[in-house]
Design goal:
Length: 234
């Protein structure tokens, strides 16, 4: 009985600690506000405390514009890896976060409250938005990025996340792609892409050729307010 009395409080304490940890990192993306426990004012030392020093390292990351200094969380876990870019205008402040950036095809633990993550289809996004949205055509700057939700429901949820990829405002930027891996396109895909080049407007999610490409979310980028790049955080 004595042993049960002494071990029971310990078990309860461990259960509470596990619960607190789960609440601390719930894998939820709240555009412009938080990514799990990461908020704009999270510091480099905070990351060690939140995720464990062994799960955090500083390394260059290819952002699409060449390698940039970054802090990577979960570098050995493609389904959870984050590349954190630090603010230039406000030291020790998170600017942008590339989410599950190591692979186009990997599943991703991080997701929004309405279930958007890597692999989310164009059709599901359209349903959540309640209307069509604009997608930057391939072969041009910003290819595949959602450039506007056109006043749909996700414009408020994501803070017009398409624009956030370009750093104009805070939010969640999504890039759609027609391949799971960067292999050569098929003849059918080339024919469909050719139709996007001929348009005299930005393609819509409802355009027949866009739907035939079977587009899915392949990149996610969270941008915090007043973003700006810097060599590193403290």
């Amino acid at each position: 009985m004595l042993r049960m009395k002494t071990t029971l409080p310990f078990a309860v304490a461990m259960l509470c600690a596990g619960s607190a940890l789960a609440q601390q990192n719930d894998w939820i993306i709240v555009p412009g506000k938080r990514l799990g426990p990461i908020i704009p004012d999270t510091s480099r030392s905070d990351l060690d405390r939140l995720f464990g020093r062994a799960n955090v390292q500083d390394q260059p990351v290819d952002t699409g514009e060449g390698p940039e200094p970054a802090t990577v969380v979960f570098p050995k876990m493609p389904t959870a890896a984050l590349a954190i870019l630090w603010s230039q205008t406000a030291p020790n402040r998170v600017s942008d976060v590339l989410i599950c950036f190591q692979s186009l095809a990997s599943p991703c633990k991080w997701h929004t409250e309405n279930g958007v993550s890597l692999g989310t289809t164009l059709e599901k996004l359209e349903t959540l938005n309640g209307r069509a949205f604009q997608i930057q055509p391939w072969g041009f700057d910003g290819q595949g990025y959602i450039s506007s939700w056109l006043g749909g429901k996700l414009a408020n949820v994501f803070d017009d996340g398409g624009q956030s990829w370009y750093g104009f405002r805070s939010g969640l930027g999504l890039r759609l792609y027609y391949q799971e891996t960067p292999k050569d396109t098929t003849p059918q895909q080339r024919r469909l892409l050719d139709q996007t080049y001929r348009l005299k407007r930005i393609p819509l999610s409802t355009d027949p050729f866009m739907r035939q490409l079977h587009l899915k979310v392949r990149n996610m980028k969270l941008v915090f307010p007043s973003n700006g790049r810097a060599p590193g955080g403290k």
